[in-house]
Write a structure and sequence with these properties.
This protein has about 250 residues and is of the alpha/beta class. Helix content is about 35%, strand content about 20%. About 30% of the residues are buried.
């Protein structure tokens, strides 16, 4: 159930674009997005839109988000390097798609940095794989819902509170398909690149053959410091200062 206060915040940032004989579009934004362009940080305004299959009021539309399954409308892939099947040591990264961080270089998170650095780590190791999980946007709530969560974060919500305020759980991601693909590509154990030991434990419960993880920290800035601290305090991530391997 989305509260009245949350609806009031978001309704002012939603526009229904109507056209005769066409489905409505719901345009959401602007979201303030600091982006790193070479040696300078440039602040953009980001919008997201969604085609509506039915006629909604803004209130009813917000209530329908948790049942829309928007995150499942994309496809995932995996980037493999080296002799992944036979090598003794292989690194893997289960990377959740981040449209804003991976593509635009947003500094509201560290996802783009983690993706590029994971690729460098895999290459440096000589063998590994990057799983790019397209239905993981916003920890599984989808890009459009993530844009709404970002707007709430601009009003003082943290990343966990914003997802929950929209009626979602903190984390909706599933790794079942990725693990099935991994088992097809490699039978030997792997080392997981992640800052979250709980993620390793959860993946192992679902069949991942991995004994340890390697943390990956970096690209901390004024724009994402609170976001990263929230992941440590509420999502079980390893504190930056510890930099330990579990």
């Amino acid at each position: 159930m989305v509260s009245t206060d949350v609806k009031n915040i978001l309704k002012n940032k939603m526009t229904f674009i109507k056209q005769e004989n066409r489905n409505d579009l719901c345009l959401v934004g602007p979201v303030t997005l600091p982006v790193q362009l070479d040696d300078q940080t440039v602040t953009f305004q980001w919008y997201s839109w969604l085609e509506l299959d039915d006629r909604y009021s803004k209130e009813n539309f917000l209530e329908s988000l948790t049942k829309a399954n928007l995150a499942s409308l994309q496809q995932s892939s995996v980037l493999v390097f080296g002799d992944f099947n036979q090598s003794n040591e292989a690194l893997i990264r289960m990377h959740s798609i981040c449209h804003t961080g991976d593509i635009f270089g947003s500094k509201r998170c560290d996802c783009g940095y983690q993706l590029r650095q994971s690729m460098k780590m895999v290459v440096g190791n000589g063998s590994g794989a990057i799983f790019y999980l397209a239905n993981h946007e916003g920890r599984g709530i989808g890009l459009f819902s993530k844009s709404l969560a970002y707007l709430l974060q601009q009003e003082g919500f943290d990343t966990v509170e914003a997802n929950q305020a929209l009626g979602f759980e903190d984390d909706h991601r599933s790794y079942e398909e990725a693990i099935r693909v991994l088992k097809e590509l490699r039978q030997k154990p792997v080392t997981l690149i992640t800052n979250n030991p709980k993620k390793l434990q959860a993946l192992r419960k679902h069949g991942l053959t991995a004994d340890k993880n390697i943390p990956l920290w970096g690209d901390v800035s004024e724009y994402n410091k609170h976001y990263l601290e929230t992941k440590v305090h509420k999502s079980g991530h390893i504190p930056l200062e510890e930099r330990m391997t579990v």
